[in-house]
Amino acid sequence: MAPTRRPGDPSSRLRIEIRGAVQGVGFRPFVYRLAKELSLAGWVGNDNRGVTIEIEGSPGSVDEFLRRLPLERPPASVIAGIVHTGIAPTLATTFTIEPSTEDGAKIAEILPDLATCPACIAEVLDARDRRHRYPFTNCTHCGPRFSIVVGLPYDRSRTTMAGFAMCPKCTAEYASPDDRRFHAQPNACPDCGPRLALWDGAGEALAEGDAALSAAAVALREGAIVAVKGLGGFHLMVDARDDEAVSRLRARKARWAKPLAVMAYGLDEAKLLGVVSEDEAIALASQEAPIVLLERLPGCGLAQGVAPGNPRLGVMLAATPLHHLLLGATGFPLVATSGNLSEEPICIDEREAVSRLCGIADRFLVHDRPIARHVDDSVAAVVSGRLRLVRRARGFAPRPIALPASGPTVLAVGAHLKNVVALSVERRAVVSQHIGDMETLEAQVAFERVIGDLVAMYDAPPVAIAHDLHPDYASTRWAQRSGLPLVGVQHHHAHLASCLADNQAEGPALGIVWDGTGFGTDNTVWGGEFLLGDAASVTRVAHLRPFRLPGGEAAVREPRRSALGLLVAAFGVDALSWDDLAPVASFSSRQRAVIAAALSGDTNSPWTTSAGRLFDGIAAITGMGERSEFEGQAAMALEFAVDPAVRDAYPLAGSSDANPSVLDWGPLLSSVVDDVRRRTPPGTIAARFHNALVAAIVGVAEKAGCDTVALSGGCFQNRVLTERALAALTASGFTVLLHRQVPPNDGGIALGQLAVASRRLASLP
Ligand code: ZN
Ligand code: ZN
Ligand code: FE
Known about the structure:
The chain is α/β, with parallel strands linked by helices. It contains 23 helices and 32 strands. The N and C termini lie far apart (57 Å).
């Protein structure tokens, strides 16, 4: 029972400041209701820093308020900190909600876009509700946030909903503290909100409103490719069961092998496509609603071309009313792949979409609510009982990640592939949404736009820029042009620092950082690294034996080149005549002569210790993929091939005398070649290879003498490698850190760069 206040009782007044994700989630009406219930006076308001409350009443009620505030907070809110101070009572008797102010530094959190809540879905499906079949229904518990915000504090006038004037009914909901839509900034209804339209492939209008949605569903049923404007950009959608339609989509996008994600109506429908564990079900149905990599069910009825040769399937659930209605109307799962060409950023504007996607999409299902910024679907997998991100965007960005210390504002510009940038704002890293591979002009434009966007939104101009040491990365060159003080951070050091920051750990730790490519301090390409240290500094205690990559960058797309680099390093140029090995046979004798010359001279065959390229080479020798459409494709084939019954391992040991110690894969390669010649099943070879890597990891960890081990780098997207390394290290008594909030791949680099830069700047005199 709430204690009631009588006239003459002693009263106390508190000022309470709350930080975190507390705006646009129904926090003020919640505070209002709680204060009313406890007969407290005072006010609540939003400002640039979060929510500020003053409450006044009997000391018992004030204590009760403080106790219940964090326990009963709205579901979408996250409280990062509460500070309260006693102030003089004013003898106020009412409680009010104050208008937003712009006081203080802009550190209030912008929420990510949130999947539609059950209450909103129920309204959309209810024929008697005024929002029946309305695709833009939302409330303070759900709906768009990051993709519509144009400034802080978060108010309708600073969102892309500014152009839609609310009708009287919506205005009444928005103004009523008792309503689920009190100050729901994107609040809308069929009378006053955004509307759908269906366009043909040339951008000519065919239908509007609900008729547009129905016509889009008919087109999908007939096998058409429909570009659908979603929350953070366009998807290309097609019937996921239709072999011919999926092949047509692949041909038009010129994307042949990379798996396509599938959208299912709900959890029950997802369970018809893949094996869904309890943790995976929670992830699928979460507010973040990421694409979750599931084990594909045999005979699930999907087209062969959805994820060729892949035992896994990326599945997401419909997360907006538009997608619920569309999936409800088709009654079958839809391929939902990014509306872009190859690795360019996704389209967000309908006119831009028509010009960029013309020739790919037959129809465009669009609407007139502008998208403020591109936000791709996030991709995640449950590994070792926890959701781990592969791509961090919708639902997660721009949730901040706590940094070890407060420092000056630093901008980290990330790496080259899977680029992500990050900005430190006081003690938090605001990590941007996935931007993409910096190969195209579009990606570089998006990179600059995201940086401008973050700096403007938080009103936090950086005083320094952290960048990768690679001199040719577009991100590095941009940093150099900025004119600001620079902090160069070695790529694999950034990976380790990222894993530490991700786990709120200080270190020191042994970072086992394995990836495809990273510029080393000796100007060679690193990627099979064992680094001991923390954000301040690291020592390279071990690495894979170096080998040369004939053709340099071309090796990323052609694992057979890594194979030849390994073979020649181990057996000499004679190995170029071993026609019984697939990667050797795939080159003509003229090409082999060029490669032999490159490997014995100095032309275009850089040295590398890359674990990613070792995976590629072994995959190619085992007969899996001489060429790759995307980085990691051959390594994935090798992972998927692993025969779980095979527990023995190839020899792979570190030299005891060298410093750093060198893991010599020579004996391992000999055994692989012998096994291939003996026609040992590829599943056995793949298992022995993975087991060898795990044993080597434990061996180096035992020598390094640090009881915490951090696993980072793109190779740790490999579930077999990660789970087995985790089990073996744990069994040997190590504490193992895996990524949680950012991906282990280069999408996590910006966070690590920030952690290193803040440490270096803090230690300056
Ligand atoms: Zn809702
Ligand atoms: Zn309305
Ligand atoms: Fe990397």
